[in-house]
Each structure stands twice: as structure tokens, then as C-alpha cells.
Design goal:
With 73 residues, the protein is mostly helical. It has helices at 8-27, 30-72. It is elongated, with a radius of gyration of 25 Å.
Length: 73
């Protein structure tokens, strides 16, 4: 069975944000491009640190709950 061929309007609607992004990116100076490119690794490191902090917080809460249960027994 054949898949329907997308209309040109559908293709242009999907490509519009991508084209805008590419034009905007090319207008940036190399220095600005480098600054924007450094945001992704920085965000990844911050998310990783947030995950570690939340894991330690969760484990601390669990330990306090276990201590409370031990006191109740």
C-alpha cells in the first residue's frame, strides 16, 4: 500500500522553524556561536549535579524514615 505524499504546504510548515533557526544561527558571529554552543554542555552538567543532589536528598530522607521506624519498634 502506498503512503500518501505530503503536500508542499506540509513540508514548508515543518521546515519553517528549521529555516528560521539556520538563518538566525548564520547571522551570529563566531564568538556568539561559541557562547551558545557552550550552553548545552553547561546545562548537561547542571542537570547531572541536580540529579546527584536529589539522589542524596532522597537517600537522606529514606534513612531518617528508617530511623523513625526503628525508634517506634
Amino acid at each position: 500500500m502506498q503512503e500518501p505524499v505530503p503536500s508542499p504546504d506540509t513540508l514548508s510548515d515543518a521546515a519553517a522553524p528549521l529555516g528560521w533557526w539556520r538563518r538566525w544561527w548564520r547571522r551570529q558571529t563566531p564568538g556568539h556561536q561559541d557562547r551558545f554552543a557552550m550552553l548545552a554542555p553547561l546545562a548537561a552538567v547542571l542537570l547531572f549535579l541536580a540529579a546527584i543532589i536529589s539522589a542524596f536528598w532522597y537517600l537522606r530522607i529514606e534513612e531518617m524514615d528508617r530511623e523513625q521506624e526503628a525508634v517506634k519498634r
